[in-house]
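Dock iron/sulfur cluster; give full complex structure.
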Amino acid sequence: MLHQPSLSRTLFVRRRTGNSKNRTDKNMKAQTPINMTCICCPLGCDLTINKSSAEFTIAGNKCPRGKKYAIEELTAPKRIVTSTVKIAGGAYPVIPVKTAHAIPKEKIFTIMRILANVEIQVPVHVGDTVVKNIADTGIDVVATCSCGRGVRAAEGA
Ligand code: SF4
């Protein structure tokens, strides 16, 4: 039997992906108003964005973060990248890492390719820099857990 995603999930995915491709000025004019969900907090406000000449008008946000999120998502989308890198001498073969801040979305695949070739040594502590200035973004990749010699310590240890 085919797995059918729930209707609410289907609608969410369509709304999030359908409007996010090729948001050039020309496309935005053709698509306005644009609808998206703010993902900055669990409230998930439904945002409506209109673009008139050089200005965005945003409605539906319950706080200023929604406006900032909408404009950034339309002009220069960013994401935090989470992944793993190989670690030698630890209890496990890999350790979880993430970018310390959000990076430009178009750099995600470049960063993943770089991380696939990184191998570090124990000991590593949570927050340690694993790769500095990854893909010339000015942002470091950091460890999100600690790992000692043959022992994987709890996060924050
Ligand atoms: S607009 Fe503000 S309140 Fe609404 S989801 Fe975004 S961060 Fe949360």
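Observed: Strands lie at 34-37, 46-52, 55-59, 78-79, 82-88, 94-99, 103-104, 119-121, 129-131, 141-143.
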